[in-house]
Specification:
With 211 residues, this protein is of the alpha+beta class. The chain has 7 helices and 4 strands; from the N terminus they run αββββαααααα.
């Protein structure tokens, strides 16, 4: 579905949003399923390579990292860039799905925080630690040296085959390791753009220095 049709799909469901052609952005009131609502602005410039940038414009969410807001841009922090690229190639296949499954979930989590003083579910840590955590999650292993090595191999156009030994050092083939889970994890890992892998490598260097 092209982007204009995706925008029309969003506007048909979320009546409080308006599309601004000159800014390539959506803005207005987004009503949550439970009845709460937020004033937001969604900038589509980097979509679909990455998630759109989303701003909460009503002043409800403090622009602080511990509230999952980027302090430099003032936009919402949904997840890492690596995870967003995977989601956009698997589950989040339209702008409407992004709003319904990512933005609304984020705002519902904030509403929960306002009432309870804690989040219903939390995300990764901030900075280098969070980026490392996301790769650990993607590949299903904790060893950051192995993950860094896999990133370098990918940048060198090297690829594990399903009959090769799994990257987790289990001495099982990638296809059979963990009932095929690591094979699927590796497939998702390869969906991350190489330029992003290159940029994220420095965060693994930081993590290794701090260990």
């Amino acid at each position: 579905m092209d982007i204009s049709n995706q925008i029309d799909e969003v506007l048909a469901k979320h009546k409080g949003l308006i599309y601004h052609l000159e800014e390539d952005a959506l803005s207005g009131e987004l009503v949550l399923p439970e009845g709460d609502s937020y004033e937001i602005r969604i900038v589509l410039e980097q979509y679909p390579q990455f998630f759109p940038m989303v701003y909460e414009t009503g002043g409800r969410i403090p622009v602080k990292m511990d509230r999952h807001m980027y302090t430099d841009s003032g936009s919402c922090c949904f997840t890492t860039s690596a995870k967003s690229q995977i989601l956009l190639k698997t589950k989040i296949t339209s702008l409407l799905k992004f709003i319904d499954e990512i933005v609304i979930r984020f705002l519902e989590n904030n509403s929960f925080y306002e009432i309870n003083g804690k989040y219903c579910y939390d995300e990764y840590d901030h900075g280098s630690i969070g980026i490392v955590q996301s790769y650990q999650d993607i590949l299903g292993i904790k060893d950051i040296k192995i993950i860094g090595s896999l990133m370098i191999q990918r940048l060198k156009n090297k690829k594990l085959r399903i009959k090769d030994l799994c990257y987790c050092n289990s001495n099982k083939s990638l296809k059979k390791c963990n009932n095929g889970l690591h094979c699927n994890n590796y497939r998702l890992f390869r969906m991350i753009d190489k330029n992003l892998l290159y940029n994220d490598l420095k965060h693994f260097e930081n993590a290794l220095k701090n260990n």
